[in-house]
Every structure is written in C-alpha cells, then in structure tokens.
Predict the 3D structure of the following.
Amino acid sequence: MAPVARAYAAGGGAESMKLMLLGAPGAGKGTQAKMLMDRLRIPQISTGDMLRGAVAQQTAMGLEAKRYMDAGELVPDEVVIGIVRDRLAEPDCAKGFILDGFPRTVVQAEALETFAALDRVLDVQVSEERIVSRLSGRRTCRACGAIYHVVNSPPSVDGVCDQCGGVVYQRSDDNEASIRERLEQYRAKTAPLVAWYADKGLLASVDGDADPEDVQATILDLLGVSDQS
Ligand code: AMP
C-alpha cells in the first residue's frame, strides 16, 4: 500500500491525513492517537473522550450515554454519529484527523462514509491477556486524558498528571465486569470492521503488543512519515 503522507514527511502538509485507529479496548488507540496528534498536528477525535466530557457536564445526552458506558455497552449509533459529524465539520479537521474509537459498528462506518473519506485505517492488534491487564491497571487524567498504568507507567506523584497537573483517576468502566462486556461488544460489533475496511483497501495491521514508541514508529512508517522529520 502506498504511503499517504509524503507531503508531511517533507514538511509540506498538503496531503490529507484522515486516519482511523481500530482495535479492541485497551489496544493502545488513545496513546497512539495522542502521539500521532503531536507528530502530525492534526486533532484526535475520541468519541469516548467526548462522551465522558458530556457526562462531566451532565448534559442530557451525557446522562443517557453514561448508562451504556458504565455497563460496557455501546452508546446508540445515532448519538455518536451526530457527535462525530458535528466535530469533523470544524475547521481544525479540514487537513486531517485521527478517529479514535469511531466507527465501532458497520452502521457507524456507513454513516461516516457520507460525510468523510478515510485515507487509512490502522488496526492495532493486542492479545486479550494483555488487554485485561492494561485496562484493569489503567489510570486516566481527568483534565487532559493522558493515560497511565499503576504498575507499568504510574505518574511521578500518585494521582497527579505529569503533563498538566490534573487529577489521575480510574475510569468507572475500567472494572472487571465492564471490561469483559466491552470485549464482548468489540468481538460482536466492532471486529467485523476489520474485514469491512480490508475490502476497501484501507486497512493496515499493527502489532500493538510492543512498547508504545515502537508501535508509533511502525505506524509512522506505514504512513510514510519519517520518524526524524
Ligand atoms: P473508549 O474511551 O473509546 O473506550 O469508549 C468508552 C465507552 O464510550 C465505550 O465503552 C462506549 O460505551 C462509548 N463509546 C465510545 N465510542 C463509541 C462509539 N463509536 N459507539 C458507541 N459507543 C461508544
């Protein structure tokens, strides 16, 4: 598959870079999306972050979504499709974006096609064993979304984000029952997107078991972006 980002590697930034990170919960999509955002200077569009923002603000939509999120179930398609359609219409998405956690169903993928054309879908593959250990130990900054792990990568000061000083907490859906349900939902509803995007010639698979920096290097390589530039 041809690299999509020659212009970025050359510092031109003229080519579009509309990316989507696919993968089970805990595959490292959020971590990779944040690294890509810094590297490519295009926004990370995380439906999970946007929904948690709506929950924190106690909007009607947020309160409805929370029920599904805490149970580890998917929020109804029409809700997330509307959120993403509005977000992608904002000017900072014109040159590109990194979709993180959307689409999660074929219905969402079909809807996305009506308002955006992806350049590449990166499927981050991680063993189930590793996913459960990552999610059960995961801690997240409430303010900036930075991701930590109680054992593998704790913040320097317990409960305080290294990057912004925000409060580091455990997401209410990062508990065992919810993790099991999210994996089940992934298998039933999201995994079919792997074949769906492969058929469209957009899919590239990445080994997500490696260290985050190595996973990022593989992704940049696949995109044709020089690691150095
Ligand atoms: P995430 O932060 O991506 O793990 O998402 C957390 C939760 O938000 C999921 O378990 C779902 O309940 C909900 N969610 C996020 N993105 C979507 C989506 N594209 N479709 C449906 N529900 C979603």
Q: What stands out?
A: The radius of gyration is 17 Å.
